[in-house]
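Structure in, sequence out. Go:
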């Protein structure tokens, strides 16, 4: 039995695909071992979102070959897609697998082992898609994940937006949606395995369905139709959505979601900048006013939803005045969480040619400034929950200050914990617990006074 180790870099979509490749190898008879162990095969699912991600991908590939020079090193995913020529001459890599070709992993390995021996010179075994011509969704699936309560479910790939800073459309191709019957089949499998929460994810989730043709003369389907179908599946208690574009949040969309009790009031709306001039240079497809309206609609139909976002500071040409507009906009919206990124020049994108590029020192100052604002917003949002009854899906046992607690997340994705009495054994994993939030146990964690227990 050959041993295989896998390592994932990048986003939740990558993580899903890595889980799928792991299960493919298991079904093909491989023993899966930790990545730092000796293995016959190392699979690195790479990332290419920034130049730094490219470098990390190369480092992991070289680390694997150094661990076992006679191993077969597989480079899969976005770095392969955007840097094929460089990857082909990298002596650490034996097999290249681009996006939309990951289902070929077992076949490529079999072909490689049949034609090579550990002592022979290893030629490349390549399966890289012409991503610009791909129109079909690559059907991958999982029946379990590394988590025991929550499963990420990929339903869409590719992006048609072409934001000026982003390489992803060139790495992932155009929008491709998974057919709804295939999604629901996997949802049922995960429900049967005991997963109570699903996170629907994709490269550009809001565009789900735009490429699907109506079947049998029926109507076209979109993300809302998919959510409704998942909602009908027995065994799933929570549906969480991946990153959304603000334009999808119309009155109809927000109202419809609010009528589906399994949908969690936790929404990640991509922002990137709170300045219209910067948004235009980024080639984002909305204005600050439109973004604000989307947040207003979510708060109209959901009671105190958790709204989170991404912000890029130091985008080319961002002046101090433009940055201040962003800072004020963030305070007006009052987010629960903000993922703050310093702009990273990415070769191959239009933004790499924009002038002037903002110095790294200024990017750091602006990032630090926003982190201070975020700390205030985050504390205000958590304090709002004190004294209120919350529902928590329990995930793991933890220790704080020498005491044992069970920790999980609320529907808003706020961390909360229940104290475990000494001498008693509690198996609360994957159970829903309701109780009142009585205090802050530690930073970012609420203490729950357990009440009614739901299994």
């Amino acid at each position: 039995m050959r041993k295989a180790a896998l390592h994932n870099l990048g986003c939740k979509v990558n993580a899903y695909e890595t889980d799928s490749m792991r299960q493919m190898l298991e079904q093909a008879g491989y023993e899966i071992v930790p990545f730092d162990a000796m293995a016959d095969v190392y699979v690195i699912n790479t990332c290419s979102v920034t130049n730094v991600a490219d470098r990390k991908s190369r480092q992991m590939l070289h680390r694997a070959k150094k661990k076992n020079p006679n191993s077969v090193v597989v480079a899969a995913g976005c770095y392969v897609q955007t840097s094929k020529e460089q990857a082909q001459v990298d002596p650490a890599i034996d097999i290249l697998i681009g996006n939309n070709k990951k289902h070929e992993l077992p076949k490529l390995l079999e072909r490689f082992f049949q034609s090579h021996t550990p002592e022979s010179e290893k030629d490349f075994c390549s399966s890289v898609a012409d991503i610009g011509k791909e129109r079909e969704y690559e059907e991958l699936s999982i029946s379990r994940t590394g988590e025991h309560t929550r499963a990420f479910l990929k339903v869409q790939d590719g992006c048609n937006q072409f934001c000026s800073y982003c390489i992803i459309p060139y790495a992932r191709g155009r929008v491709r949606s998974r057919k709804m019957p295939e999604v629901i089949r996997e949802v049922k499998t995960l429900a049967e395995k005991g997963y109570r929460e699903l996170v629907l994810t994709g490269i550009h989730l809001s565009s789900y369905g735009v490429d699907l043709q109506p079947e049998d003369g029926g109507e076209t389907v979109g993300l809302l139709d998919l959510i409704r179908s998942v909602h009908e599946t027995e065994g799933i208690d929570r549906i969480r959505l991946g990153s959304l574009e603000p334009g999808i949040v119309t009155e109809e969309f927000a109202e419809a979601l609010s009528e589906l009790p399994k949908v969690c009031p936790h929404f990640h709306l991509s922002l990137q900048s709170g300045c219209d001039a910067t948004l235009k240079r980024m080639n984002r497809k909305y204005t600050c006013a439109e973004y604000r309206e989307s947040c207003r609609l979510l708060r109209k139909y959901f009671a105190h939803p958790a709204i989170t976002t991404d912000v890029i500071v130091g985008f080319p040409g961002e002046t101090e005045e433009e940055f201040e507009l962003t800072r004020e906009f963030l305070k007006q919206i009052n987010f629960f969480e903000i993922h703050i990124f310093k702009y990273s020049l990415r070769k191959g994108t239009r933004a790499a040619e924009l002038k002037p590029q903002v110095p790294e020192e200024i990017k750091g100052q602006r990032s630090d400034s926003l982190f201070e604002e975020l700390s205030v917003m985050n504390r205000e949002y958590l304090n709002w929950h004190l004294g209120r009854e919350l529902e928590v899906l329990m995930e793991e046992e933890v220790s704080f200050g020498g005491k044992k607690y069970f920790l999980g997340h609320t529907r808003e994705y706020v961390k909360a914990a229940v104290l475990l009495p000494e001498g008693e054994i509690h198996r609360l994993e994957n159970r829903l617990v309701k109780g009142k939030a009585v205090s802050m146990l530690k930073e970012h964690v609420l203490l729950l006074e357990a009440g009614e227990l739901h299994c």
